[in-house]
What we know:
Mean pLDDT: 83
Helix content: 25-40%
Largest sheet: 7 strands, mixed
Shape: globular
Amino acid sequence: MKRFQYILVLITTVIIVGCGGGSTVTVKEKRIADCFSENTKDIRITWGQRDAEEHRSNGFYLLTDGTVKFFAYDSVTNKSLEREIAVLNLETVCHIHERLKLAIVKTQALYSPGPISRYITYTNPHTQTTKTGLWNAEFSNIGSQYFREVYDTLNIIVSQQLPDSTK
């Protein structure tokens, strides 16, 4: 008899919570790292590879709330894929942002495409600013050094966030 009462109480609780939970609306406030201001809160850091012959691009982008998304794009078929793969802690986001700003200041301009090119793009829609470093993936030279360091750091951090089945 006690088991029946326990199950009845459990079912009643689930029904009450389920019905009551549907009537309230909660708005999740977007968390943003402290290192971003009102003018930089919408920054997007994109990095990946472009294949010139195949007209394909793939990579990741990082938002100021730590969200990391994978994307793939084929410009011949105009097909794209995008999915969230990780959420980084905000301290890491600030660290990446500072390293990329330093790479941009030290390098100023980097456009050295190859058959397969790697790139990092810093986009701030508030100031309508876009800075891109693009280099030939086949070569490592002094001109692309700082962007390559940030690119490699981003890939390591993201790979550490992925579940074992996707590595």
